[in-house]
Design goal:
The protein has 190 residues and is an alpha+beta fold. It has 4 helices and 11 strands, in the order αββββαββββαβββα.
Length: 190
């Protein structure tokens, strides 16, 4: 799948999230992430991080680069851009962001996550910030999406899925973001 084909599948599903102050955000702590897709040998890859075991919440889990909104950020998009730079040293601008996917709620920590999407031909080598990130995972996107399975371990009222890469279980909010990609990249006629 080349960049043009990938963009044709993704772009119709992207939008811009509601502005801060919208009632949708009232009951949650806010955060945003970057779903960074890039190409290696003409194949789409996605960057995920393995969170440091020393973090208070979601330690050791696989996630997209991103984090908590602060007032200094002014927008959730600025939060995502700041966080990807801090966590893995990738410098993005607002022009690198194509739009957002549907917001995702965490089931345990009361966060509302806004996922922003960037599709770039090439990226600089990620450099993980050791205090927050144990490892950067650069994963072939189509291979990862094809591992989607129902998540029977983490039962809740929501429909849950998980993904697996190199013995790393990807579940929770990250899996719900990947599920959105699965629906329009691997199943574009739906």
């Amino acid at each position: 799948m080349d960049k043009e084909d990938l963009l044709a599948r993704i772009m119709p599903h992207l939008s811009w999230p509601a502005s801060l102050g919208h009632p949708i955000y009232d009951k949650f702590s806010l955060s945003s992430v970057v779903v960074l897709i890039h190409f290696t040998k003409h194949s789409p890859h996605v960057l995920l991080t393995k969170r440091s075991a020393n973090l208070k919440s979601h330690s050791g889990e696989i996630s997209f680069p991103g984090g908590r909104y602060t007032k200094e950020d002014e927008t959730l998009l600025n939060t995502a851009i700041r966080e990807i730079g801090e966590e893995i040293g990738i410098k993005l601008t607002t022009d690198d962001i194509l739009g957002g996917l549907n917001v995702v709620k965490t089931l345990t920590s009361n966060f509302l996550i806004v996922p922003f999407v960037s599709v770039l031909q090439h990226i600089d080598q990620p450099i993980p910030f050791a205090d927050e990130v144990e490892a950067v995972l650069d994963i072939p996107l189509v291979s990862l999406l094809s591992t989607m399975r129902p998540d029977t371990e983490h039962v809740s009222i929501d429909e849950l899925y998980n993904f697996n890469y190199d013995s790393n279980l990807i579940w929770g909010a990250t899996a719900r973001i990947l599920k959105q990609l699965n629906e329009f990249i691997l199943q574009p006629t739906r």
